[in-house]
TrEMBL record:
Protein name, per record: MFS transporter
Family matches, as Gene3D superfamilies: MFS general substrate transporter like domains
Transmembrane helix listed as a keyword: yes
Keyword vocabulary terms for this entry: Membrane, Transmembrane, Transmembrane helix
GO molecular function: transmembrane transporter activity
A GO cellular component entry from the record: plasma membrane
Source organism, top-level taxon: Bacteria
Length: 386
């Protein structure tokens, strides 16, 4: 098999793994109603994903060294299909929490090995090209699942939209295709436990991605119920697609910028985009929601994500794996805890108040982190002159 075909198969498989992650997002309001719960319970179920991600991401970093890359991709695909089957057979918030935990484990397995496996399959040793392909395929999948479900829901409400069997069919095809891929890694008995590491100057970048992914998590978990009040619930999948996948359009520009400058630009864009998005959601203006989501995506998956990850890897020296784990630890904490807190506020004080309070905290956080980045950049420049 040619390296081009092999890398395309892997990209297809990674896209299907992440396709399943937000496949159910437009149905969150329906699951909550079915279970008699509110926004806080929905946010907790949504955060089951992080419960699955963190142990694998932080504690099983050496797993690929022991079993090889291909088995982990196959396991990730199998877990994504199992989660989809679960939501088809038993829709509800409790089942959603279980499904998202399975999806978290699968995504972590794919994340832990995807870039290294892609680099091996491409056979040219270009780690940056491999990372770009993995980033593009996974980002597309994260947004596409929700968007496809929204399209199927336009024909009428259902708890079993056609996007679910579509995912199962495509994931099964990807599973069979991955079985034919080589598994060239040399297995070795390395340590499974690899704790995160924060090199000097990296914490501000981790806090920046925490703020960015908190905004993304809020759009995915809480926006469906807010939009449903204006009879726009079926468009929540499109807002999820915009807040994730549209960031791909800004990655080429982010790559041409210095890491600190890229991250600072993202911190400037993020609160402005959120303000437009939140106003649109509260007022029922779909265009404002989608434009705000695209702007937030440029910050979250364009400038802050690439700028921050690049800076952390540069600062880490030989500890890149542990430093990346630390970066993503903060990212996934942002993806869960602020969303649960905002869901509780929405249940007690209303969605409008919750959105305003989240926005105030987001703005304060962006100012604080930007100030820390500016101080770090000036210190580094001064040390370089000395």
């Amino acid at each position: 098999m040619s390296s081009r075909n092999a890398s395309t198969i892997l990209a297809f498989a990674l896209c299907l793994v992440t396709f399943a992650v937000n496949l159910q997002a437009p149905l969150y309001t329906a699951y909550a109603a079915l279970s008699g719960q509110g926004a806080a319970a929905t946010a907790v179920a949504f955060s089951g994903y992080v419960i699955g991600v963190l142990p694998v991401l932080l504690l099983l970093g050496g797993l690929a060294d022991r079993v090889g890359h291909k088995p982990l991709i196959l396991a990730a695909l199998a877990l994504s299909m199992l989660a989809t089957v679960l939501m088809l057979l038993a829709p509800g918030l409790a089942q959603l929490a279980m499904a998202r935990t399975l999806l978290g484990v699968g995504t972590a397995l794919a994340s832990a090995t995807g870039t290294a496996y892609m680099c091996e399959l491409m056979q040219d040793g270009d780690a940056r090209a491999a990372a770009n392909r993995v980033t593009a395929s996974t980002s597309l999948g994260f947004g596409l699942g929700a968007a496809v479900t929204s399209l199927f829901l336009l024909s009428g409400p259902t708890l079993a939209p056609g996007s679910f069997p579509l995912h199962l069919a495509l994931a099964a095809l990807a599973f069979v295709a991955v079985l034919g891929l080589p598994n060239p890694v040399q297995r070795r008995q390395s340590a499974l436990l690899r704790l995160p590491f924060y090199p000097q100057g990296s914490l501000a970048y981790g806090l920046a991605i925490l703020l960015a992914w908190a905004c993304v998590g809020l759009v995915i978990a809480l926006m469906p119920s807010i939009l449903a009040r204006h009879h726009l619930g079926n468009w929540s999948g499109l807002s999820t697609f915009c807040v994730i996948s549209c960031g791909l359009l800004f990655q080429p520009l982010a790559r041409r910028m210095a890491s600190a400058r890229s991250t600072l630009l993202g911190l400037l864009i993020l609160p402005c985009s959120y303000a437009l998005l939140a106003w649109g959601a509260d007022a029922g203006v779909l265009a404002a929601v989608l434009l705000g989501a695209i702007g937030a995506s440029s910050a979250c998956y364009g400038f802050i994500y690439l700028g921050g990850l690049s800076a952390v890897n540069t600062l880490a020296g030989t500890e890149k794996t542990r430093a990346s784990a630390g970066f993503f630890l903060l990212a996934y904490l942002g993806f869960s805890l602020p969303v649960i807190f905002t869901g509780m506020l929405a249940d007690h004080f209303g969605a409008g108040t919750a959105l305003v309070l989240f926005g105030a905290l987001l703005l304060t956080g962006c100012f604080a982190v930007a100030g820390a980045l500016l101080r770090t950049s000036r210190h580094s420049a001064f040390e370089a002159i000395r």
